[in-house]
Amino acid sequence: MTLSANQLSELNNRLHPIIGAIFEVHKQLGIGLEEPIYNESLCLELTSQGIPNDSERSLACYYKDQKLAKTYRMDIVCYDDIILELKSVDQLISAHREQLFNYMRLTKMPIGVLINFNASKVIPEKYFYNHSTNEITRFY
Question: Helix H segments across 4-125?
Answer without folding.
Answer: 5-29, 35-48, 94-107
